[in-house]
Design a protein that fits this description.
Elements lengths: L1 E4 L4 H8 L6 E2 L13 H19 L4 E12 L2 E3 L5 H11 L3 E12 L2 E13 L4 H11 L18 E5 L2 H5 L3 H10 L5
Parallel strand pairs: 1-2, 1-3
Antiparallel strand pairs: 3-4, 3-5, 5-6, 6-7
Helix pairs in contact: 3-4
């Protein structure tokens, strides 16, 4: 079966590579837009829209995997920052506080689909302004929910994590493997 990752995220691609399976990347054209309401349902809905959009543009027997990740701080959604100033603002807000990272994942195949979400709690250290400035300048985190990557220098921001580390990177790969394996689509 042809497996397609409907994402342009280099982090999701690297995580999929851990599975040791053949897959291809076809980024979704869906614009991420929250309609309000339950965060869990919203990330699943957006992930499903992404996967369905790529499914409709492709052919052959295939499985399309879509994902959407957001950071939530005290009820406020911190998506991808619009510019470097907003990236710094997000990191200042997260400094010294706990936040939640939600990732919705969707699988679309034949005439069926399945979705799930993962939630991880992250506690940040108090971040010196110089660290925030250096991070934004060097890593340019405009493509990252909440303006940080736990797999790069952003790792030093993290004091504690409760839940799936890979969820914070943007794809709870263990649960993706469980899905693929349970249907005989992994190796």
């Amino acid at each position: 079966m042809r497996i397609i990752l409907a994402s342009s995220s280099p982090r999701r691609k690297k995580l999929m590579e851990l599975l040791g399976i053949d897959f291809e990347v076809i980024p979704s054209r869906v614009k991420e837009k929250f309609e309000g309401g339950d965060i869990e349902r919203e990330v699943e809905r957006i992930a499903l829209e992404k996967a369905k959009e790529v499914y409709e543009r492709t052919f052959e027997e295939r499985l399309v995997i879509g994902a959407d990740t957001v950071v939530v701080l005290e009820g406020e959604i911190l998506g991808k920052p619009r510019d470097f100033d907003e990236a710094k603002e997000f990191l200042k807000k997260l400094s010294g506080k706990k936040h939640l990272v939600y990732t919705g994942v969707a699988f679309v195949w034949e005439d069926d689909f399945e979705t799930f979400h993962e939630k991880t709690e992250v506690k940040f250290r108090t971040l010196p302004e110089k660290l925030i400035d250096v991070y934004v300048e060097r890593y340019r985190p405009l493509d990252k929910a909440g303006s940080y990557g736990i797999q790069d220098l952003g790792a030093v921001f993290v004091e504690k994590i409760v839940g799936d580390y890979y969820n914070v990177m943007g794809l709870p790969i263990g649960r993706v493997w469980e899905f693929l394996n349970s249907r005989g689509w992994w190796l």
